């Protein structure tokens, strides 16, 4: 019989990008299920503050670890997996978005977005495939943009969708592989953007989204949890976008 690939009590979950936003929510939800979590991020201060918040939240403070690393660098990714050793589930929130079209945007910016959304995650997947005995990987794509308005993000998101389909077959039956695709959501991703601009973007998305609002952070976190806890879902990209792509 094939062993279980679902999140279980005592499992060790690596959240690459767990120091804020969706990833921090995922880390908290993992602890609620009596599992252990290691969070990764680039900014040491942000990571330390997330770690102590999670340790306060956890039943056992020693169920939280953190590693400062930049997933855009191969040697950092290697170090993360060398440090954790065997792992049960990996969640990656890595993926730098961008604005601008194929003609107008700086080529370097388009390239950096594809590198971040696709190649960094491919590297994580390759390491994760060796570190996970039985479990899952969940990546992050995105919806709601248009190719002419976010060229590199669009390509990167499609690449993630293709990657999870291929990996799901290559890594079966012991590892399931999925992605979650949020649309614009008010998270700390927009911390550098003036509040008034964030509110304006939120209002314009709420107008476009059939459900008439943007997501609550926990609704996106729930989708990551679903990918870890449903043992018969693999190769899927789950849109958590209120139906934004169903209208013009
Ligand atoms: N919020 C939205 O509107 C939205 C919509 C669609 C898709 N998404 C995608 O969802 C994902 C998470 O977004 P979020 O809203 O939760 O943003 P966030 O609050 O900025 O969280 C991103 C997390 O990833 C870490 N991170 C980013 N790049 C990293 C790297 N190269 N290496 C290691 N850690 C890295 C960040 O910490 P450090 O910065 O300290 O490294 C942080 O912990 C992103 O891939 C984003 O593109 C977001």
Helix proportion of residues, in percent?
40-55%
The SSE order reads: EHEHEHEHEHEHHE
Distinct small-molecule ligands in the complex:
NADP nicotinamide-adenine-dinucleotide phosphate
Q: Structural class, please?
A: alpha/beta
Mean pLDDT equals 97
Number of helices: 7
List keywords for this structure.
single chain; 248 residues; alpha/beta; Rossmann fold; seven-stranded parallel sheet; 7 helices; 17% strand; binds NADP nicotinamide-adenine-dinucleotide phosphate
Describe what this molecule looks like in 3D.
- With 248 residues, this protein is of the alpha/beta class.
- It has one domain: 3-Layer(aba) Sandwich (Rossmann fold).
- Helix content is 44%, strand content 17%.
- It has helices at 21-32, 44-57, 74-84, 107-131, 151-171, 195-208, 217-229, and strands at 12-16, 36-41, 64-68, 87-92, 132-140, 175-182, 237-240.
- It has a seven-stranded parallel sheet with strand order 3-2-1-4-5-6-7, sandwiched between helices.
- α2 (44-57) links the parallel β2 (36-41) and β3.
- The chain is globular, with a radius of gyration of 17 Å.
- The termini are far apart.
- The mean pLDDT is 97.
- Bound molecules: NADP nicotinamide-adenine-dinucleotide phosphate (NAP).
Summarize the structure.
The chain is α/β, with parallel strands linked by helices and 248 residues long.
Q: How does the SSE layout of this entry go?
A:
Elements: E1 12-16, H1 21-32, E2 36-41, H2 44-57, E3 64-68, H3 74-84, E4 87-92, H4 107-131, E5 132-140, H5 151-171, E6 175-182, H6 195-208, H7 217-229, E7 237-240
Helix pairs in contact: 1-7, 3-4, 4-5
């Amino acid at each position: 019989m094939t062993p279980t690939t679902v999140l279980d009590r005592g499992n060790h979950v690596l959240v690459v990008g767990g120091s804020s936003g969706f990833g921090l929510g995922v880390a908290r939800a993992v602890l609620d299920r009596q599992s252990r979590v290691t969070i990764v991020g680039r900014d040491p201060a942000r990571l330390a503050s997330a770690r102590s918040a999670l340790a306060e939240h956890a039943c056992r403070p020693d169920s939280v670890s953190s590693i400062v690393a930049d997933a855009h660098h191969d040697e950092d990714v290697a170090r993360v997996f060398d440090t954790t050793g065997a792992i049960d589930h990996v969640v990656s929130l890595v993926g730098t978005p961008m604005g601008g079209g194929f003609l107008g945007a700086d080529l370097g910016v388009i390239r950096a977005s594809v590198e971040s959304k696709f190649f960094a995650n491919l590297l994580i997947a390759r390491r994760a495939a060796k570190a996970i005995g039985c479990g899952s990987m969940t990546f992050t794509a995105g919806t709601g943009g248009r190719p002419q308005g976010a060229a590199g993000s669009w390509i990167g998101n499609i690449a993630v969708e293709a990657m999870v389909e291929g990996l799901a077959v290559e890594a079966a039956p012991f590892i399931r592989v999925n992605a979650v695709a949020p649309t614009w959501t008010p998270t700390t991703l927009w911390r550098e953007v003036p509040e008034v601009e964030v509110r304006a973007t939120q209002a314009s998305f709420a107008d476009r989204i059939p459900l008439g609002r943007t997501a609550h952070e926990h609704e996106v976190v729930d989708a990551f949890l679903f990918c870890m806890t449903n043992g018969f879902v693999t190769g899927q990209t789950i849109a958590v976008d209120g139906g934004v792509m169903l209208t013009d």
